[in-house]
Design a protein that fits this description.
The chain has about 375 residues and is mostly beta strands. It is about 5% helix and about 45% strand.
């Protein structure tokens, strides 16, 4: 019995550790120049490194979508899956894969974390020029709609990467222009707006964190960038190269110089150092979270929705008696903000689960809102329906 209890305890620890390693990092080597080292998970809550997923010394199989077969890449060029110069990484939550774009190239790579195999998308949309630093892709993130978005240094291109009929496709959405109020703090000025990373928000906007610490809000609807201010509390000359949203809804930033990581609150752009001794060069960060998403745990709200990746046409609503008062209702919205389903849970037994049939929904990304008896939202959760 003691052995069984110990095993359960170890399993619990392993699950908690895995849950904390929910930010991905593109790391480098201690060098004056960009030198790719590996992709790994991070436990930013404690400031420690997690598992290494894929590295410069790995031997992956690369499958070309254009040639529909495995290909051998020339490692003597800048145009391959383990290129030295990389600064753009995103996490494809729907498929559980890492998406990245090396600098100096228009190739997009999709890494399967389990098999370590790579899919190569030879993009015609990306217009990178080796002689134009502004054209290099250095920022990537997963949008609230589940698609991947990438941006060049100068904002000359905003690229959308999506999946259709089992294949990845890339689309050039156009150039981002400066808001008239930006003044000298232009996204297009190297010392003000280049480099860094970007994160997504639940309102479908993006935030660009430049290497200089300047923050811009980017609207894909109006294709403009508005300067919000400079991060406070970072060391002087801190080179910000990676940014990702953590489970608390704040932004974690990191540096390619191997300096401390910081947590930034967007409402005041105040940075505070993250505990731990994680001082490795980080060129980019990625996570499954977005700014403004209600990330309420079951322990706090008394309600949960699962699974988030729906393959069997239903979701479960779980309630806890002590946390819930009044009648509960569920509303489901598509990503145009249209309510596509509503259900009252007046007959659900507390401390149990109830299935909600999703047969009427097409494949896509939806937001499930759970409301209490006062019609107050107590949980929003994004789900992916895959039929």
């Amino acid at each position: 019995m003691k052995r069984k209890l110990l095993s359960l305890a170890m399993l619990s620890i392993a699950i908690c550790a895995s849950a904390q390693q929910d930010i991905y990092a593109l790391t480098g080597k201690n060098s004056q120049n960009i030198v790719f080292s590996d992709f790994r998970t991070l436990d930013v809550q404690h400031g420690v490194s997690g598992n290494i997923i894929f590295g410069a010394e790995s031997t992956p199989k690369v499958f070309s979508q254009v040639f529909n077969k495995n290909v051998t890449e020339d490692k003597n060029t800048v145009n391959h899956s383990q290129a030295i110069s990389m600064a753009a990484l995103a996490y494809d939550e729907l498929n559980g894969k890492l998406v990245y774009i090396p600098m100096f190239t228009s190739n997009i790579y999709v890494l399967d974390q389990k098999s370590k195999d790579i899919t190569l998308l030879e993009s015609q949309a990306i217009k990178t020029s080796q002689c134009d630093n502004g054209s290099h892709i250095t920022r990537m993130t997963t949008g609230y709609d589940g698609n991947i978005y990438a941006m060049s240094n100068s904002g000359s291109q905003l690229i959308k990467i999506s999946k259709k009929d089992g294949k990845y496709i890339s689309t050039d959405l156009g150039a981002i222009k400066d808001d008239f109020s930006n003044g000298e703090n232009s996204l297009k000025v190297m010392t003000k707006g280049f480099g860094g990373d970007m994160v997504a928000a639940a309102d479908h906007n993006f935030y660009v964190f430049s290497a200089s610490g300047n923050v811009f809000q980017v609207s894909p609807k109006y294709m403009n960038a508005k300067f919000l201010g400079k991060i406070l509390g970072l060391p002087q000359n801190y080179s910000l190269n990676g940014a990702a949203v953590n489970s608390a809804g704040n932004v974690v930033v990191a540096s390619a110089r191997g300096e401390n990581m910081y947590e930034v609150t967007l409402n005041d752009l105040q940075a505070k150092p993250i505990a731990g001794e994680l001082k490795i060069p980080i060129y980019d960060l990625a996570s499954p979270y977005v700014v403004g998403e209600k990330l309420s745990s079951f322990a706090n709200s008394g309600v949960d929705v699962y699974p988030t990746k729906v393959d069997e046409n239903y979701i479960n609503i779980k309630l806890e008696d002590a946390k819930i008062t009044g009648n509960i209702s569920v509303e489901i919205y598509d990503f145009a903000g249209v309510k596509v389903m509503q259900k009252n849970l007046t007959s659900i037994e507390k401390n149990k689960t109830q299935k909600i049939d999703l047969n009427s929904l097409n494949s896509g990304v939806y937001v499930v809102s759970v409301l209490n008896g006062a019609k107050k939202v107590i949980l929003n959760k994004k789900i992916y329906v895959n039929k």
